[in-house]
């Protein structure tokens, strides 16, 4: 049990800290930290003492309790430091506390005696009875479940392995009905600071990420519990913005909050001791909500609890009436209910415009890529799921997959900062996607489309090959992050050492990313001699295949082709159809790099007609194995992708590439002949291309 506060040294130390907090010289968080090894009081009691001091300075009734000796000490110290008027104000607050306790049947006569003793010892000519009584707000004659007689003489509120519930704070509130409770929470420092939050340098996606951080961390911290709940399938975080009502809603089915966590989520200067991971600062909800809009409401229920808490923060109202408190309401729900909802009304940072929405979706997908792809987590934006597709990695170049695991230390200022992750080479490359994504607690701090980390010492010029293809993910849990969690605090030289160390660990990948076009081209293209031989071989063989089968009637009749097509003047129309087909289906714009020399083939398909092919290999295209266009009549530019997954295992085998090139040209010729032989409506029988291919491949096989 905590003994009553009677030690004068401790009283003085606590008083000085409370005065500094009230005067704005430091935050509550800092004050509590500074008192850790100086006093024996628990943190919950210290916060209460700070609040009592604030009430005494403002003449407000406080409902929490402390000892007679500390009450006397506070009043006398205020008199010594601030004079008679402040003394009378403090007396008024203490008198209000005494009357409040009488009303709730928990009279503490020691408080009145402390006031009378202070009046006598300070020599102020005033009667206790003449001291004005402050308004005792939020107090109604109702059933009071339990009120702590004196927190100094009670067990610590926070019992091990138990969340603090609403009932643990009965000294802080008065119930209104049996089904619904309500009390007033002082959110000091002054609520005007909420206006300051609206001017923070957030971007919409980072502000939204603050809410997602809270949701995901709530699940991650309690996954062992939630994953065993039969009704729980996965964590679902839903973000919705209604452009008509101008309301932003973020909801989840995570673990939720009991009263202690809920209260800390509202208090402006509070940080729960259990906060860690992604919500380590404990400020995200209130700062992001205040940044987004003028009015925000939080509702939450912890799994296994029947208590649902809600509070509304109306910033304009708080400012207009100089209020420093909000109402927290409790009602009751099923024990199976759990999760949190944040509703922001009167949104001032409106989420409109297709570019903004696309940016939000892209960056959220990047930030939470590991959650989305690896954890039991879904994130939705305006009723559409956020997805992340892994970037393609260069394969089978120099017989390896170009991805390397990283694990190294950055030594700076006598401390080791550990870095893990990977570096890789993207194929095909992408300027918006290249660069490093920097993670902390499995969440991207720096990174995302057009936002990846690209130090010039590693990536060179903005349009360099390195800047196009080099990418990776780095885990940097040891590095300090700023409060907005959109960057690291490393301007003291830490970043320079980090970049230098990273460069040393990925030097080979920097070189390959820069040299890949040259290197891959030399390994992919034919040798000069092989290319020349191939040109001679294919041109000869394909010409012979056509000339040996120039009896059109036999061929056309065999394959069921309308012979009247070319005689009725429809050839030109057919050629137009070919061009349309090629332009709309086969000539889709694709990212690729052409390599090697261009091979030129003239194939005689009759004694009067020849078809010209300009053939080149390409790397970087994994979607299409062949891409071609008829540039002029019977002249085709052909690109064959050796990086297509089907061909990759054989990409260095020149014999295979000779076969593939013959096959590709036979395919194009078969499509050409089939299209020319279509009926008057442009219809091609389903087996015509196949049959022409069979004809040409047979001829190629038989020709020696």
Q: What is the gist of this entry?
A:
This protein is 39% helix and 19% strand.
What do you see in this structure?
With 704 residues, the chain is of the alpha+beta class. The protein folds into four domains: 8-152, no CATH class; 185-384, Histidine kinase-like ATPase, C-terminal domain (Heat Shock Protein 90), CATH 3.30.565.10; 403-515, no CATH class; 525-702, no CATH class. 39% of the residues lie in helices and 19% in strands. It has 23 helices and 19 strands. The strands form three sheets. The protein has a ten-stranded mixed beta sheet with strand order 1-2-7-6-5-8-4-3-9-10. Strands 11-12-15-13-14 form a five-stranded mixed beta sheet. It has a four-stranded mixed beta sheet with strand order 16-17-19-18. It is elongated, with a radius of gyration of 38 Å. The N and C termini lie far apart (102 Å). The model is unreliable at 138-162, 168-179 and 550-590 (pLDDT under 50).
CATH topology of the largest domain: Heat Shock Protein 90
Number of DSSP E strands: 19
Largest sheet: 10 strands, mixed
Anisotropy-based shape: elongated
CATH superfamily of the largest domain: Histidine kinase-like ATPase, C-terminal domain
Structural class: alpha+beta
